[in-house]
Amino acid sequence: MKKFIPGPEHLEYTVILPPGCSSYCDSVGLKSGTERYSIQRRTNSSGREEISLMADGVTTGTRVGMKLDIK
């Protein structure tokens, strides 16, 4: 989880899991309708799972992130 001061207009970060791992994921601190966000997953060219969080309109001082649970 990350606290942004001041609130960014746009944020994006990606987590790359170790080879052979996959996960369940959920947003933390982001509310549908308040901030615009998405979590996307894909398999990269090395066969590793990547999970990306993209968000816009995060309020200053809000703690946001994503929770990953390895399967």
What this model shows, in words?
By secondary structure, this protein is an all-beta fold. It has one domain. It is built from no helices and six strands. The chain has strands spanning 2-3, 10-16, 23-28, 36-43, 49-56, 63-70. Strands 1-6-3 form a three-stranded antiparallel beta sheet, with no helix packed on it. Strands 2-5-4 form a three-stranded antiparallel beta sheet, with no helix packed on it. It is elongated.
Multimeric status of the protein:
single chain
Proportion of residues in helical segments: under 10%
| Category by helix and strand content | mainly beta
Percent in strands: over 45%
Shape: elongated
Radius of gyration: 13 Å
Q: How many runs of DSSP E, i.e. beta strands?
A: 6
Strand order of the largest sheet: 1-6-3
Mean pLDDT reading: 84
Largest sheet: 3 strands, antiparallel
Number of domains: 1
Low-confidence stretches: none
With helices defined by DSSP (H or I, 4 residues minimum), what is the helix count?
0
Report how far the terminal alpha carbons are from each other: 20 Å
Element order: H for helix, E for strand: EEEEEE
Question: Which key phrases capture this entry?
Answer:
single chain; 71 residues; mainly beta; 3-stranded antiparallel beta sheet; 0% helix
Topology:
Layout: E1 2-3, E2 10-16, E3 23-28, E4 36-43, E5 49-56, E6 63-70
Antiparallel strand pairs: 1-6, 2-5, 3-6, 4-5
Summarize the structure.
By secondary structure, this protein is mainly beta. The chain is 0% helix and 55% strand. The model has no long low-confidence stretch (mean pLDDT 84).
